[in-house]
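ARCHIVE CARD
CATEGORY: sequence design from structure
SOURCE FIELD: tokenized fold
FIELD CONTENT:
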């Protein structure tokens, strides 16, 4: 009885102390949060360099992307006659896309065009931002997982790819129960914090964050983007080995290659090897965007290439290599490859 009488005040004191500590912690967290709230003028005219004060990783990724160079890319400047072709300009420095009806074409912004497709282009909504997570921190963030990430938003500018996605991929994906967006491949998800560089960063839990480098030229892509079907070959009378095979676009939700103005091509190379592994002959085919032989999602496409070889040679293997390449071949990335036995005999 006596012990209980003593313990009750002590228990109450402990509870009060805990609550006081919690209140101090909350105040200590709230005061700096309120103190670092961004003014409306900063939100209305925020360059990526300002966003980098907190979002270092994301802005660093964006700086490596084609989006950051959309306005300054020398190829774009030359192709638009020094930016005189006004029809091409809005997608390279757009006003915030979420602030307009989704069916309207992008509008060219008046300032900071050198930033290209910047943070505001995809995230700004009036004096706030839209993102996959709600936040009341330094600036308000509205949770919007309907449009971020969403293929329709990408399709505001990438119209050819989006039309292919809707007409070629979406019906097949729906029947198979797939729900892959453009971001699935072009903005792969990882686990990270949304902010870095200040003490409040650690208040953010580690969560799913998408890569903003939007790398089109990378070897970090899912396995099996292109599948090479059965390969059959026969020797012809004109000292050529005729190689027949199919290629299937297994990984992209659009044609490979795709786009209207891109510099990419699909390079298909067939080599015939002797028993010693040396090349007896080779042939290649390059497909540019818009070629009717480009690879539609999930549809095997037949190909046949003839490879001239020495008359007295004995082919042993046929090698098929599929690459994505920049038109000047300064960058190449393999999509698929394999070797198959060649027919023996004359």
């Amino acid at each position: 009885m006596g012990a209980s009488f003593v313990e009750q005040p002590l228990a109450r004191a402990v509870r009060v102390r805990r609550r006081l500590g919690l209140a101090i912690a909350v105040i200590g967290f709230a005061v700096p949060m309120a103190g670092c709230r961004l003014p409306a003028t900063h939100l209305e005219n925020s360059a990526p360099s300002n966003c980098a004060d907190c979002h270092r990783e994301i802005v660093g990724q964006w700086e490596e992307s084609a989006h950051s160079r959309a306005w300054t890319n020398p190829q774009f400047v030359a192709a638009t006659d020094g930016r005189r072709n006004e029809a091409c300009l809005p997608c390279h420095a757009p006003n915030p896309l979420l602030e307009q009806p989704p069916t309207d074409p992008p509008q060219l912004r008046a300032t900071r065009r050198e930033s290209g497709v910047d943070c505001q282009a995809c995230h700004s909504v009036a004096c706030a931002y839209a993102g996959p997570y709600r936040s009341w921190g330094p600036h308000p963030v509205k949770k919007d997982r309907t449009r971020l990430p969403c293929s329709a938003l990408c399709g505001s500018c990438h119209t050819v790819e989006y039309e292919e996605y809707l007409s070629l991929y979406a019906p097949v994906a729906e029947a198979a129960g797939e729900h892959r967006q453009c971001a699935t491949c072009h903005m792969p998800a990882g686990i990270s914090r949304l902010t870095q560089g200040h003490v409040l960063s650690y208040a953010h839990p580690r969560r799913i964050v998408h890569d903003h480098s939007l790398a089109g030229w990378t070897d970090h892509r899912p396995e099996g983007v292109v599948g090479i079907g059965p390969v059959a070959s026969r020797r012809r009378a004109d000292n050529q080995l005729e190689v027949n095979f199919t290629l299937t676009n297994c990984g992209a939700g659009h044609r490979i290659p795709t786009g209207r103005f891109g510099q990419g091509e699909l390079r298909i190379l067939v080599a015939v090897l002797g028993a010693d592994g040396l090349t007896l002959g080779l042939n290649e085919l390059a497909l540019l965007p818009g070629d009717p032989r480009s690879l539609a999602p999930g549809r095997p496409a037949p190909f046949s290439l003839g490879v001239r070889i020495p008359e007295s040679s004995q082919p042993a293997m046929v090698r098929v290599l599929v690459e994505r390449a920049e038109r000047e071949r300064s960058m190449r990335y393999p999509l698929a490859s394999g070797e198959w036995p060649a027919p023996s005999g004359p």
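CARD ANNOTATION: Residues 46 and 136 are 18 Å apart (CA to CA). The chain has a mean pLDDT of 84.
SHELF: design records, drawer C
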